[in-house]
């Protein structure tokens, strides 16, 4: 999955990122960041930590 990260302004002076799949589907949206540098750092954190991430399902519903 290549996908791409898209950075946008959030309308309150901050920045957010979205991870977009090749088919255009939004896979994830990052929290609000106070600066573009902080937003890019958030993207880099996801890149470093997610390749081997496990699923921790804490929902009450099964199935």
UniProtKB/TrEMBL annotation:
<dbReference type="InterPro" id="IPR051141">
    <property type="entry name" value="UPF0339_domain"/>
</dbReference>
<dbReference type="InterPro" id="IPR036913">
    <property type="entry name" value="YegP-like_sf"/>
</dbReference>
<feature type="domain" description="DUF1508">
    <location>
        <begin position="12"/>
        <end position="57"/>
    </location>
</feature>
<dbReference type="InterPro" id="IPR010879">
    <property type="entry name" value="DUF1508"/>
</dbReference>
<dbReference type="Pfam" id="PF07411">
    <property type="entry name" value="DUF1508"/>
</dbReference>
<protein>
    <submittedName>
        <fullName>DUF1508 domain-containing protein</fullName>
    </submittedName>
</protein>
């Amino acid at each position: 999955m290549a996908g791409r990260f898209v950075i946008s302004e959030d309308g309150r002076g901050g920045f957010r990122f979205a991870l977009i799949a090749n088919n255009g589907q939004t896979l994830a949206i990052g929290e609000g960041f106070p600066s573009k540098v902080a937003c890019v750092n958030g993207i880099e954190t996801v890149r470093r930590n997610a390749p081997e991430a496990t699923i921790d399902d804490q929902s009450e519903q099964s199935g």
